[in-house]
Design brief:
This protein is of the alpha+beta class. About 65% of the residues lie in helices and about 10% in strands.
Length: about 300
């Protein structure tokens, strides 16, 4: 669509440039025809040549000169007064004037074309640098395997959300998700299968959470989800949906066995700080692992909120 629009723009611009040159030649010819006794009048033909410079097109300048020479010859042939007023030396001088102005116009056009090319190259270079900067910025924030946010970005975002909680009492829960028996998967089926499982877990987490939630690969086989603007019960239900989806999905790479998750969930309390939030989520995760795995545990209510 953009290419078509650019072509239409260029076509219209070419038409406009041609119209300007032709109008200038007609105007100059009219003045010469009406004032043939003034010897300097043929010099006004230089203005269409100068007008053609605005197109920054050398071919158009040559065409303008050719049309002017034809028109000048026609005016000389059909206007007796012009033939009387213009001696051969005047004709030669006028022709040299046209050619000289054309050479100047060509040089101006060359400079203009060079300037436009430099501007175009500078713009393209700037756009390329901008795209590269955006890509590099994304790469610095994302985990390459899972396309989730990485550990560093997760902590930066969490600190901002905690500040929001302190100022505006934004509800905030942290879930740490760990793939059960992941080392055994790597040892039995190979690391490439382990990578596939990491990607599938990441995809299910992304599909299940809401747009207000923040998902990251925390490290190794661990993922972290920051739930915002939810009650603990709502965050617990989403965590359970993630766990349940994985537990009922048979993985062909694992001989049709399912991947299970242990999840630790903790509700942030204003003023407790990031370390306490992580300690609560870690304690919940440890409890889920210690009591059989494949479950979601809330730290404050261990024993009361478990999914299996």
């Amino acid at each position: 669509m953009t290419g078509t629009s650019e072509m239409l723009y260029r076509y219209r611009k070419l038409q406009s440039d041609d119209l300007m040159i032709i109008t200038g030649i007609i105007f100059a010819s009219s003045i010469i025809y009406l004032n043939p006794n003034i010897g300097i009048v043929p010099a006004i033909y230089i203005f269409p040549i100068l007008t053609s410079v605005l197109s920054f097109n050398k071919k158009r300048i040559v065409i303008a000169l050719s049309l002017i020479l034809i028109c000048f010859a026609a005016m000389y042939a059909i206007t007796p007064e012009l033939r009387i007023s213009m001696k051969p030396i005047h004709i030669i001088g006028t022709l040299f004037l046209y050619i000289g102005v054309t050479i100047i116009a060509m040089n101006i056009s060359n400079s203009g074309i060079e300037l436009l090319n430099n501007l175009k190259n500078a713009t393209e270079t700037k756009q390329e640098l901008l795209v590269k900067t955006i890509i590099m910025d994304k790469l610095s924030k994302m985990d390459a395997l899972t396309d989730l946010y990485n550990h560093k970005t997760f902590h930066e975002y969490l600190e901002k959300l905690i500040e929001q909680n302190e100022r505006n009492h934004l509800s905030l829960q942290l879930a740490i998700i760990d793939i059960d028996n992941f080392k055994k998967i790597n040892d039995t089926y190979g690391h490439w299968v382990g990578d596939i499982m990491l990607q599938r877990v990441a995809n299910i987490i992304k599909e299940t959470v809401t747009p207000n939630d923040f998902v990251a690969r925390y490290g190794g086989e661990e993922f972290a989800v920051i739930f915002t603007e939810k009650t603990m019960e709502q965050s617990f239900r989403i965590a359970e949906q993630i766990r349940h989806k994985l537990s009922v999905t048979l993985q062909p790479e694992l001989d049709s066995q399912a991947v299970t998750l242990s999840i630790g969930l903790h509700d942030y309390k204003t003023g407790e700080g990031k370390e306490a939030l992580f300690k609560g989520a870690d304690t919940s995760l440890y409890s889920a692992k210690r009591t059989g795995k494949n479950k979601t545990v809330i730290q404050a209510l261990i024993g009361d909120h478990k999914g299996a």
